[in-house]
Structure formats: C-alpha cells, structure tokens
C-alpha cells in the first residue's frame, strides 16, 4: 500500500507571534462602518459599549499590518496548534487529477473548528478589561461552543443565543455549550425586545443569525459588565483567524510549494480570510497571482448574487451600517445543514476585495457539497463539517479542471471543522432525502428593495 497522506507541523517556537491585518496593505481600504444615528463614520469609541476596547481598535485599524498575539492567547493556541497541513494524496488519486491538493486541518481544535482561534482572543481581551460576562449568538453551534470554552478558560460567564432551528436540529451542540458551563437560549426568544418583536410578527420563526445577533447585542447593552462577541463577519475576527494562513505559509514552504489557488468556505468570511489573507499579501505586495475562491451555499448567495451596499449586520438594525455584499438583512436563508453559512452579508474587508477583483466567489448547491464531503471522508478519513464541504466541493471543481487541462496546479483549502456532530445531515444525504434550495431572483429583488428604505 502506498502512503496516501503527508502532514506538516510547526514547532511551538515556529507558531506565529503576530496576526496579519490586511487592511494596512489594501490599495482600496474598506469603506468605514457608519453610525446608524449620526450617519458619521464609526470611531472605535462608538463600539466600546458593545465590544472589548482592544477589539474595537483592531476592528478599525487600517495602519498596523502586524498585531502581536498576547502571550496568554498564544499559550492557549499551543494546546492545539500548529494544526496539520495535509497533502491529500487520497483525494488527488480518487479524482485522477494532476493537481497537488493540500488542506489545513482546523478540525483538530478542542471544539472541532477554527472558531476557537478568535474565541480565545476575544475572551482574553474582555477579561483583561475587567468584564465578567460575555454574550453571543450561534448558528450551527460551533461559535457558541468555542466561546463557551474560551469563557471558561479565562474565568468568564457566557450566555449564548442559539438560532432556534439549530437548537432543535443540533441538540448536541447545545449540550457541548452547557457542558462548558454556558447558558443557552433558543432565538428568537421572549427574553429580549428584538426577540419578542419577531415572535409577535412570525410566531413560528425558526430564527437566523441576524435575529440571534440582535438578541445578544441587546443583552450586552442592557447588562452591566457584559460584552458582546461575534464569531465571524467583523474585521477583528478575521484578523485572529490569520493564524491559519500564516502557519500554512510556513508549512507549504516545508513542502516546497506555494499555492496557485486558495479556497475557503464562506459564512461571514473569517475562515476564508484567515487562510487567504496571508497569501493575498504577496499578491498585493509582490505581484504573485494566486487565485482566492470563497465557496458559499447556492441558497445564501450574497457574494455571487447580492449587491455591494451599506446594510445592517442584524435583523433588528442594532449594528452599525456596514459596506458589504448583502442579500438584505431581512433575508431568511433556507434551513440548509451548513448553519454557519446561513448569514445574509459578508465582512467589509472581503466585500472590498471582491469588488476590486482580488478574489472570486463560487456558489454551490447543498447536494454537491455532500457528494464532496462523503468522497473526502472515504479517502482522507475525516468527516467534514457541512460548511467545510463547500470548500471541498470547490476544490474538487478546480481539481477536475486541472485534469481536463492537464495543469499541475497547487490547491490549498481550509478544512474549517469536522462534522461528527452533524451526522443527522449525513443521514439525510445517505437516505436520499436531502434537498437543494433555489433562491429565485424575485426573492433576492424583494429583500434588496426593502434595503433601499434603510439607506
Ligand atoms: C462558522 C463556521 C464557518 C463559517 O464562518 P466563517 O466566518 O465564514 O468562517 C465555516 N465552517 C465552520 C466549521 C464553522 O463553524
């Protein structure tokens, strides 16, 4: 039997000591977030009531390309980092492609996804500032699990609003959060004004990330010594995730290769940006021509079919207005299994980069993602998260193109998490009862029409 996998690791000393802030190097900086009341560009102080102060400064920092990782956070990273960079010989062989396929395996973190990279940083900065309670929303439960554990690590209490459909479909994620000691509430709930309003208008609402965000922000604003945290979309979250790409850059060098294509699945952009930006830096500064592909669900196609416009990050309109690709903050995505990708908008950095053609986007139907994930499990042994299946499907599309054209491209994708708590989804796929959801042009147009009124 031939060896079908090769893995690359870094020593503790080689683990990066700084995160990479691509805003500093971007030719066209992201447009500023706008304060919804004053209509003025946001200052870090405007965000202080909601987020830890250091995170607010990171959010709007367009000057410093490198940000030191606090020693306390880096010490926690060493519990599971470096994560392996894997040469996927098994997948290459199964596809008969001349492409060299690598993946960065973030599923080895204690909570099973990349989300812990930012959860640890956010909990640390809250603790350092004397905060005692943190709150957040979670879709599939990955972010909630990561935050619950990070809160425990730094001695904070965590309250999590979980999107109701996930709370019901994925009870084990709730148990995981509760095991770490967090308080979990299905959203929309009657515990906040935002939740009560939604339940009054739509009594059987299944919830969405936008709804849960509104509830968590409201709790943070109305509770003393409580801050809100977010698992994606915002620039400081993506900043923390660059640890993925910075490690991958060193590991690819160990393999003697450099990627022609970098791929990540896309919810709000943090794991995509995390793996992509350290490589994109070389496109910006040194004229490298690596392609970057964000893989999103066909049922929530903000990058491929949304518009670039100022919009709210949540349903209730509590967040600043963000310049982003969006389907409209009222967009209710279909109940696909990739709960982490069911969000109406994209982060401001990625939105600007897409507008400037620094990256591409690909939308993929749910069934194709499970075809890809199932093949990957058989040949690489890891059962991928439904979100990560989007990145694998995009990788397979590109690897097949390499086969057709005979080109030996180097493809790197991020395996953002494992799917061991998502077996209900695999069950449906295996029994043939998994659905694809079409978003009609009329659906998109209707939501965007409502958006006009906001601006
Ligand atoms: C949350 C999540 C995503 C999507 O979030 P991004 O911020 O776009 O990375 C992707 N994969 C997994 C496993 C997740 O938990």
Short description:
By secondary structure, the protein is α/β, with parallel strands linked by helices. It has helices at residues 44-47, 53-59, 71-77, 89-95, 116-128, 142-153, 164-169, 171-179, 193-201, 209-222, 235-254, 270-286, 302-305, 348-355, 366-380, 386-405, 423-430, 441-454; strands at residues 5-8, 18-20, 66-68, 85-88, 100-105, 133-138, 157-163, 183-187, 226-228, 261-265, 291-297, 307-312, 321-326, 360-364, 410-415.
Please describe the biggest sheet, giving its number of strands, its sense, and whether it closes into a barrel.
7 strands, mixed
Structural class: alpha/beta
Strand order of the largest sheet: 1-4-5-15-10-11-14
Q: What is the number of helical segments per DSSP (H or I, 4+ residues)?
A: 18
Q: Could you give the count of β-strands?
A: 15
- Assembly type of the chains comes to single chain
Q: How much strand?
A: 15-25%
Bound molecules: pyridoxal-5'-phosphate
The helix content, as a percent range, equals 40-55%
* Ends apart, CA distance between termini: 62 Å
Radius of gyration from the CA trace? 20 Å
Which segments are poorly predicted (pLDDT under 50) over 5 or more consecutive residues? none
Query: Rough shape?
Result: globular
Average pLDDT value? Answer: 95
Keyword list:
455 residues; seven-stranded mixed beta sheet; globular; 43% helix; alpha/beta; four-stranded parallel beta sheet
